[in-house]
Design a protein that fits this description.
CATH class of the largest domain in chain A: Alpha Beta
Largest interface: A-B, 36 and 36 residues
Distance between the termini of chain A: 46 Å
Number of helices of chain A: 13
Number of domains of chain A: 3
Oligomer: homodimer
Number of strands of chain A: 20
Shape of chain A: globular
Strand content of chain A: 25-35%
Radius of gyration of chain A: 24 Å
Structural class of chain A: alpha/beta
């Protein structure tokens, strides 16, 4: 008998009918002899309803009370699922964050888990109960209710799996796994049987639609095998695994991530002196604007061009700051562009396979796409291109790197 | 500085707007220097919504999970009221039943309070917080969430007042106090400044619309001064007090209670032998039918007539049982009548004032009302009459006992 932690999100428990379907699935696992801990989110829409009430009362609701308020959403789901399991003859018991004792720090609305008391859970699992645990919530050391921030139910599931030394943590969602790229953009996108934690993290722009990044980091840190599956369809999903377990048959590239969330700001003709990067980006950071890609060209005639990207919604604010700074630095010109896309190839195979970057550039050049910025890490190559070429770029790269082949086949590069 | 426990029911916190009004009222008390513990119910309609969800899932919802589910309703109210107080510059902190530690037995959905841990509450009151406590809920010794049954928020308030040795427990509701009789029936009905616990209990049929009987019993047992007030209108309300504190100026009769909820079943011509009452009522009790008034006439020629009342909804069931029993007993006839009303005069003054009963009978006879049954206790006289005379009877008695005078005047009887 294996011990599984299963997590069902708000959409999966959004109606009584869906809760019944989840109960059917959980009951099947139970009859197969598995020990089960099921983590649930609030019914879809409920958290927003509660937040709406709070904002009717107070513009900036008291964080402690916000947590007291929204944590009720998950508690409702746990009770209803436990009832639905009971109706199917499956012994089940609900737990809220305080009852498990998911101990967190006291950072209300964005708390971090410190410790989980597994004694009571183990006793109830031994006694044959399916445990239905409220996701997203905990208590601080004084017994105040805390929440982990939105989407924190994934983190709850992973933390429970780590604490209980579960055999697998299964995240049920509305997709049947992690894909080589977004299937809505590329027909030939394939579900990956496995992906490493590092790749999953680098796939963030795509992966975050599937799994909370924080949960993936957590799972990697505690070596919790994590699997993404569809809530209402059967299938193996995608297993997120430690790299050490990978074999040589794995393809070089795991997938292609992309987004259109960013905007690019360029400072042209900056005097190339020590500290100039800090003088440009310091004020941006102080304004709490997150910077993603940063590129500084090689200096010519004592001046350089400096480009970085920010979230599109922050472009205007960032540009205003940079115009101020550019004046002080005596830069020649500042430009801003929000019609860009970022495309990233991700794969731990890059470490051992040369030529991925040149193959990527060659592919894009063959279809006439100009690369505006390039940024590389150990297992990722990102390029910034004109937004209008995003589909062409993703499809061409998906095909060039053999991602539309059966996923068991290895995609060798140049 | 006095310590007050205030309770606001579901209607009083039914909308964000009403929660704001409650916050205004609580804030005023706080500025007047009172220490405050505020007990709230779920927003009106919320408990029914949650119960509805449960019944969609399971015909007879698991009681443990029912408590987990419905207890969220009060928790939502506490958070919103704490936010509303905070917005007014009043330091406030919410508590659910588990956080206070309102320890109960494990009778889910109808638990009874065993103990309240007042240490943390006292510390927060000392620190200047208004404590906003979820009514109706507690935890058993294993940390399982329990509820006290519907309306249990009154009991929570009284129990907290007893544990904290509060100066007064104020129950805010949609009436401005306890009346001599129902003001909808008698224009001259007066609000009582005070009433004793015993009278309040005997007034149950009226009083239960104002206060949970269990809370009144609890308050009496622990000598907690209890006051009923209107949530949104100012006024002194009605103080429910220990009889020992009463003075001789109190009127004989506190009020007139009445109901039309009962039906009467009569067995005529029963052989008057020992054990006959048990043989008639035993099977009724075994069928879980509650019997209220019981009257057995003096025996003539070896046979007697036996009459009792039950709730109207149980009449048909009770009649069927009695017809069976009557056959076995050789009784002459069984009749059933659901067109009856019960009218009760209540007052601790009856103990020291003779003649209340005869005055009552005289008044009813003067307006031509026939009395079908009579039942008396130490502080109450009840009569059963034809339902169609209920208004005439209540108005005549209200006037005859001087209850439409100013409540400070004493109503002396014959």
């Amino acid at each position: 008998m294996s011990l599984l932690v299963q997590k069902f999100g708000g959409t999966s428990v959004g109606t009584v009918e869906k809760i019944e379907q989840v109960a059917d699935k959980v009951a099947r696992f139970r009859r197969d002899g598995h020990g089960l801990v099921v983590v649930v989110s609030a019914m879809a829409g409920e958290t927003n309803r509660l937040i709406g009430l709070a904002h009717e009362v107070q513009d900036q609701p008291l964080p402690r009370e916000m947590d007291v308020l929204v944590s009720t959403g998950e508690q409702v789901s746990t009770a209803l699922l436990a009832m639905a399991l009971n109706k199917r003859g499956v012994k089940a018991k609900s737990y809220n964050g305080s009852q498990v004792r998911i101990l967190t720090d006291d950072a209300h609305t964005k708390a971090r888990i410190r410790d989980i008391d597994d004694a009571r859970l183990h006793a109830d699992i031994e006694a044959g109960y399916v445990l239905v645990v409220a996701g997203f919530q905990g208590v601080d050391e004084h017994g105040n209710i805390t929440t982990l921030g939105r989407g924190g139910s994934d983190t709850t599931a992973v933390a429970l799996a780590a604490a209980l030394k579960a055999d697998e943590c299964q995240i049920y969602t509305d997709v049947d796994g992690v894909y080589t790229t977004d299937p809505r953009m590329v027909d030939g996108a394939k579900r990956l049987d496995t992906i490493t934690f590092e790749e999953m993290l680098e796939m963030a722009s795509m992966g975050s639609k599937v799994l909370q990044i924080r949960a993936v980091e957590f799972a990697g840190k505690y070596s919790v095998p994590l699997r993404v599956l569809h809530s209402f369809e059967d299938g193996p999903g995608t297993l997120i695994r430690l790299e050490e377990e990978s074999d040589m048959e794995n393809p070089t590239i795991a997938g292609i991530a992309f987004n259109r969330d960013e905007a690019k700001i360029t400072v042209l003709g900056v005097p190339d002196t020590p500290g100039v990067a800090y003088r440009i980006l310091g004020p941006v950071g102080e304004a709490n604007i997150e910077v993603d890609v940063i590129v500084q060209n090689v200096s010519e005639d004592g001046s350089t061009d400096f480009t970085f990207t920010v979230h599109r919604s922050e472009m205007d604010r960032a540009e205003a700051i940079i115009r101020q700074v550019a004046g002080e630095l005596g830069a020649r010109q500042v430009t801003a562009d929000n019609k860009i896309a970022k495309i990233s190839l991700v794969g731990v195979g890059m470490r051992s396979h040369a030529g991925v970057a040149s193959q990527m550039f060659k592919t894009l050049s063959e279809v006439g796409i100009n690369i505006q910025m390039i940024s590389t890490s150990e297992i990722k190559i990102s390029v910034i291109i004109d937004e209008k070429f995003i589909e062409l770029a993703v499809r061409s790269l998906h095909s060039a790197f053999g991602l539309d082949q059966e996923s068991s086949a290895s995609a060798e590069v140049s």
